[in-house]
Design a protein that fits this description.
Helix content: 25-40%
Oligomer: single chain
Structural class: alpha+beta
Strand order of the largest sheet: 2-1-3
Number of strands: 3
Strand content: 5-15%
Order of helices and strands: HEEEH
Number of helices: 2
Length: 78
Amino acid sequence: MSMPSNESDSREAKAAKIAANPSGYKVCEGCDSIVGSSVVLCPNCHSYRFDPAPDVVRRQALALGSREQTSVTAGDLT
């Protein structure tokens, strides 16, 4: 199933924003989601372990932005 163009563009735009300011984010070590730097628990998997290294955040943002969403988020359940 292919994503509509605007969703893909949105993911790429969000990824570019995160990659441009990686210090404002961190990567969840439980599910590889990217969350804001102030988050204590991952909203997706409830993990409390994160990797805040800018190079890790940048690499994960670019990886996630270049592919379709495969995880279920809270927004998908409403």
